[in-house]
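Encode chain A's predicted structure.
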Amino acid sequence: MRQKKTAPVAVAAGAVVAAALVVGGWFGYQQWTEPVGGGHALRGYDATSPAGTAPHTENVFTGRVAAFEERRVVEGWTQDVYRIEVGSVLRGTVRGTVRVTYGRDDGTADRLREGSTYVFATHAWADTVKDGHAQLYQGEMRPVGDAVLAVWREAAGLPVVSDGESASSRDGTVRGRSRGSSVLMPEPV
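Encoded structure for chain A:
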């Protein structure tokens, strides 16, 4: 007789536990399915540090802002487009005058000052004539000085992260995508 009374209690307890798991799972799933809001990019690296950004770039160079050209949307992101006269190249093959698109993920980028020289860490957009190069560094853009240049020279000396590899995967601890892991990252050409 006793077993008949505990069976309904066990079934009810199991149902309560199952319901709690379903509700908890649903709320957890909602966090993963919500779209990335404006001002957020998914990246596999720290875009606010030169050492985190440089391994994901094609080019690291100093450049003087010749002109602000326009503000427009490039692949869904509001970007300022600048004409930049390339100075010294720390990594890559960029030369002459190039177009660089710059916009911070959080939308707070101050306009770069014409005539000032900055360090640019870029990756070419698919259409380099129309869109130029995307500025990947998301930290504060400061005019070049000895300290800023020294930090970027060291960062530009770090190995480039190849497709399908994250910066930390070189030691075998983490596997992930580098290019394509960022909403902002342009497609390689």
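The longest helix spans residues 2-33.
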